Amino acid sequence: MKEITSAEFDSEVLGGGKVVLDFYSTECPPCEAVAPKFEGLAALYGNDVKFIKMFRQQNKPLAEKLGVRSSPTLLFFDNGVQTGSVLTGGIKRSDIIHELDSLLTKERVLEIKKDIKATVSDFDVVILGAGPGGLTAGLYLCQAKVNTVLVDIALPGGQVSTTHEVSNYPGFIDPQPGYMLSHNMSEQTKLCGTVYKVAVDVTKIDLEKREIIVDEFETIRAKKIIIATGTSPNLMGIPGEKEFKGKGISYCATCDAKYYDNKEVVVIGGGNSAVEEADFISRFASKITMVHQFDALTANKQAQDKLFANPKISVLFAHEPRSFVREGDKMVTEVEDLKTGNRTKLVADGVFVFIGMKPNIDLFRDKLNLDNWNYIKTDEDMHTSLPGVYAVGDVISKKYRQITTAVADGTIAAIAIAKELN
User: How far apart are CA 27 and CA 29, in angstroms?
Assistant: First the structure.
């Protein structure tokens, strides 16, 4: 693996051969997450593909010329021609492998993969999920000198990292950007000594054996497991939703609202998330039409008062979406009046969906006691129905799901585990 500057780009990258180029930055958690994957794959594929790194801040003109605007960004070249997909953000090892394999023959790929050796790592505790609950558990455990690893299929922070503003987290007088609050939580836990394995593919989870396989080759064994996998947005399951997800339909205002400056959008939902995110989207969009299935919003009164005072936002009550289609550069949402059955079409530039969440339990759904809504049941110490397995945060059965309640859950589980291990 070699690091170059923009002055060497033509000779090292465009000069021929197969190349993967990593634009990285300092003080960049996603860059730190991808670095060991990049280095490990360089050892496997390095005889066939050149692995090159470039410091983005010191080579900004070239980065911008290549369309690189964030770190890390991986670009792939074959004999001087850029090819394949551009990988950026929370890059998974499997995504890099897919692009590397596409540069080589099938026969050569098979030869290389014969050299992949399975590994086993042993820890006292493995935490599944790096949201506030998981990060807090990791912090308390490492301060108690408990050997802990944090595993997440995405980057640390959970849903907080995509929340535009947090105004009710204790200790901060001014509202905090969600990404900064989650970043500070993550850095505190990392500096304490918790091992991070993030933006990985979780291949298998065996709760009884307390073993987790990540990226198909590494088995992580632990004495205790904390499940902190959180929740994911509910889908409506109507025609067009799957096809236009990420192509006109979004589930994250913080991520995508900026793309709708002076444009019109539709927001589906009427709870706290929908109302608060609609208010945020109104900083960019010129007009917002909310579609809600009930005759009244279900968000808290303060959020409702703020929404109804916003001249950009109107609410279509007692309506539900039935389909999404694209007409030119517009998204068309067909909605049904639940009282009359009449259907009408709402034409906008984009659609945001906020209709609640579901627990992320697919890999162990049949192993634990769940409530009627498929959330994990726990006792006061966060034990689940399986010995040595705990659960914290939004994934568990409880009345309120907030950042502060997730942090409390993580604290309780960590203290209970530390005492048991001692």
Answer: 6
pLDDT tens per residue, range 236-259: 999 999 899 888 999 888 778 888
Rg (CA), the chain: 24
**Residue 376 per-residue DSSP state:** B
Rounded to whole angstroms, the Cα distance separating 192 from 307 reads 41
Facing residues of 245 across strands?
Answer: 249
Using CA atoms, how far apart are residues 380 and 331, in angstroms rounded to an integer? 47
Domains of the chain: 2-113 (3.40.30.10), 119-232+357-421 (3.50.50.60), 241-353 (3.50.50.60)
CA-to-CA distance for 130 and 157, rounded, in angstroms? Answer: 6
Segment 275-281 shows an average pLDDT of 93
Buried-state track 313-352, b at ≥16 Cβ within 10 A, e below 16: bebebebbbebbeeeeeebbbbbbeeeeeeeeebebbbbb
Q: 326-382, pLDDT tens digit by residue?
A: 999 999 999 999 999 999 999 999 999 999 889 999 999 899 999 999 999 999 999
CA distances from 241 to 8, 189, 191, 331 (A): 45, 37, 41, 11
Whether the ω angle into residue 156 lies within 30 degrees of 0, i.e. cis, is: no
Catalytic residue among 48, 78, 206, 252: 252
Q: Is 252 a catalytic residue?
A: yes
pTM of the entire predicted model: 0.82
Task: Give a three-class secondary structure readout of 376-422.
Answer: ECCCCCCECCCCCEEECHHHECCCCCCHHHHHHHHHHHHHHHHHHHC
Can 256 be counted among the known catalytic residues? yes
Burial bucket for residue 149 (CB in 10 Å: 0-12, 13-18, 19+): buried
Q: What is the rounded CA–CA span in Å between residue 406 and residue 134?
A: 8
Structure tokens at 344: 């009408």
pLDDT (0 to 100) of residue 246: 81
Q: How many CA atoms lie within 13 A of 373 on its CB side?
A: 13
* 206: amino acid identity, one letter: D
Of the listed 215, 256, 349, 409, which one is catalytic? 256
In the set 255, 261, 305, 371, the catalytic residue is: 255
User: For residue 57, what are the contacts with CB-CB under 8 A and spacing of at least 6?
Assistant: 25, 26
